[in-house]
Amino acid sequence: MYVHCSLITNEEHQKLSKRSGHSSFEDLKEQGFLPETIVNFVALLGWSPSDNREIMSLEELVEAFDFHHINKAPAVFDMTKLAWMNSEYIKAMAPETFYEMVKPYLTETIQKDLDLPRIASMVQSRIETVFDIRDIVDFFEEVPDYDIAMYGHKKMKTTPESSLSLLRDILPVIENADDFSNDALYTLLKDYAASHEKKNGYVLWPIRTALSGKQTTPGGATELLEILGKEESLRRMRAAIEKLSLALEGDADA
Q: What is the CA radius of gyration of the chain?
């Protein structure tokens, strides 16, 4: 008996071909996709189990396979779905296993003496491949150049002007913090916000922006404060105050 597998095409419905630049198994591994992800994904091209599960181990695929469920229509090699599936496998990894896998990428990007296992735990649920890590964690090494417009956040009701005022006011509060753990810092800043009749985000957003120079980060303001440590956090906040002052006061003088 012969069983014909479905034709596999790219997203433009063209037949896959190495000559046309389409990826092989080894190519996909080099792009950061896990072997088990690739096997799982390819097994579901043109076939699906009766219960429509998508994330399956090799053993589960072998047990569930039934050639009667092979589709006759061509299957599309959807890179977006492959990336999603890879992210699901990464999320399911034991933290220790994930850390050992990404440690080379972390140490390549972050030279400072920081808690790399903690940083790894923060990014585990946020990446699709290991190569995403560099752009997510590079700010731990140094704040990138950024536009002060980033301090404006409609939901948090912040502007560059309000952020400058907030950072100037909150700096001595953080300077005087004895306990620089995440929980203690969160309580400190939450109490500050309440005493000034502001929402937490109004206080936390400018601090997170000053520490990272990023629109999105793998952790909140107090987590970043704890990981960076008191000295480095204060240095970055002072630099942010200077950056905002020069930009805003320079505009005012123009």
A: 24
User: Is residue 137 over pLDDT 70?
Assistant: yes
Structure tokens at 191: 């109490």
The dihedrals phi and psi of 63, each to the nearest 5 degrees, come to -65, -35
pLDDT bucket at 1, cuts 50 / 70 / 90 = very low
The CATH number of 8-90 is which of 3.40.50.1110, 1.10.3380.30, 3.30.70.260, 1.10.1160.10? Answer: 1.10.1160.10
Q: Which residues contact 53 (CB under 8 A, 6 or more apart)?
A: 60, 64
Percentage of residues of the chain with pLDDT beyond 70: 82
| Residue 174 pLDDT > 90 | yes
Q: H-helix or E-strand containing 9? A: strand 8-9
Instruction: Determine which one of 18, 72, 154, 155 is catalytic.
Output: 18
Alpha-carbon gap, residue 210 to 167, rounded angstroms:
9
Any catalytic annotation for residue 18?
Answer: yes
Buried b (16+ CB within 10 A) or exposed e, 102-134: beebbeebbeeebebeebbebbbeebbbbebbe
Q: What is the pLDDT of residue 6?
A: 53
* H or E segment and range at residue 28: helix 25-30
- Reported as a single tens digit per residue, the pLDDT across 40-82 is 888 777 676 667 787 877 787 777 676 655 666 566 668 888 9
26 HSE (CA, 13 A, CB side):
1
Q: 148-253: what fold?
A: Arc Repressor Mutant, subunit A (1.10.10)
Q: Comparing 33 with 17, which gets the higher pLDDT?
A: 33
| Domain boundaries, given as residue ranges, for the chain | 8-90, 93-140, 148-253
